[in-house]
Here is the input.
Amino acid sequence: MFQRKDNRPFLIAGPCSAETEEQVLQTAHGLKHTGIHLFRAGVWKPRTRPGAFEGVGAGALPWLRRVKQETGLQTTIEVANGNQVYEALKHGVDVLWVGARSTVNPFSVQEIADALKGVDVPVLIKNPVNPDLELWLGAIERVANAGVTRIGAIHRGFSAYAKSRFRNAPYWELPIELRRRMPDVPLICDNSHICGNREDLREVAQQAMDLNYDGLMTEVHPLPDEAWSDAKQQITPEIYQALIQ
Ligand code: PEP
Ligand code: MN
Here is the structure.
């Protein structure tokens, strides 16, 4: 799982957040023929400031089941605690991911890992928000120690105070070192959260491919400007199709 096949990258795409049943299904139908391997959507959203849209919650999980039934696409969501793991698995979500704000916290990661014991579901682990390779490695080890055998790492960039054209500084040396230390863990580039804009998505995706990453995670929304979260970085299914050509 998550590896390149026939030299084609493993592609994950879908909206930042599941907003409505219609938006989720429209996105999934728009992506169905692009050849993606996994449909993403955020159901519980970790927002930096209170008052922003915090996700629909468990009520959005039946929408993802419909995505699977209608398009045949497998689904993935972010989980941040044991109860979210339980709810996701109960509703048939295929792959779970640990977000950057959870990877920084060994208590959170351990709680997620404990909830995963005895359930060998594939798990993707994003880098921590801060450029600390040990935290990223530690999170992967905690999940692996819970008995999870299919694990991938997602590089989504790192917080930096200095202004730059990126929302999250890529610091490519960290994922490269992660791969040196854990050569069997597939590495996926989340170009959307690195860029924080639409214009740089292609360049960052290309750089990841040049570095022989296994795949890409990209945020796609039918009406990006109207998205309830991360509007600036989302692209339509049509633009996504052109991006992965
Ligand atoms: C997301 O994927 O929408 C998200 C919140 O990601 P991250 O954990 O990388 O900030
Ligand atoms: Mn997002």
About this structure: The longest helix spans residues 133-145.
